[in-house]
Amino acid sequence: MIREWLAEELQLVKLRADFLRDRISRSARDQFRRGWRAGYEVGRKHEREGVRYATERYRSDPHPQVEVEGIEVDDGMADILLALWKLGLDTQYSCQGHTDKFAPYDTFGHSYASQIVFASIDHAVKFLKKSTELMGYDGLHEGSFVLHSMTPFEDGVARAAVTFPPAILKDLTERWVAFELTVPHVESEEAEEAPHA
Question: pTM for the whole thing?
């Protein structure tokens, strides 16, 4: 009697596992289809408009620049970069992205993401970890954070870029600025000697 009951329970568990596996498989297929359709639609749109390269319009549409600590940056990136620099995270390049052109599941549309290139992959990983901690899942229906490794410069230090949806830039900036205000800072003489975080 107990064996029969255990056998039935085991069959139910296997059946539930099969349903779950099938649901996950369908979800993955649906996500792929949405991405493929988005890419196909964007490709057809570019074809109709005569755009040869997806970044063509981006090059002719620069963002307004502001000066932050003697460096020109995109206006939308100024506050977050300042917070990162105060925390010792070194950046080399950034772009605020294009909210109207960004498409998270489209190869060409993702080139319009907000982007920060860090001087070392360690700094990029720290930014990525803290950003996901600060944001949770807020805004990730628009896409997600993506880490891209990059070739080092002459110094041999591996670099990395982190891209994310431009739609979350304002919220992400507010959270980084608030976080930076909670971190105690060392005096300027000590800061020169202290290693970057």
Answer: 0.64
